[in-house]
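Why does residue order matter? Because the sequence determines the fold. Keep that principle in mind as you read this record.
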Amino acid sequence: MEFGPQQLGKWLISAGIIIALLGGVVMILGRTGLLKLPGDFEFGSKNWRIYIPIAKLYSNFDCPDRYFMAY
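Structure:
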């Protein structure tokens, strides 16, 4: 199978559609609150918003021991 400009164009269009669909899913999940952890704090009103992702920050530390090598 040859890979020419036509094939590249089809791949780029397909990738763009997939990225757009994933973006839509992330937007929907964000509005329903499924992407927030219970320890994340959000303050604000109609015109402003402050989001403090404390639980998300600590959930990214899987194992602190992996940074220290014992020889």
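The chain has a mean pLDDT of 77.
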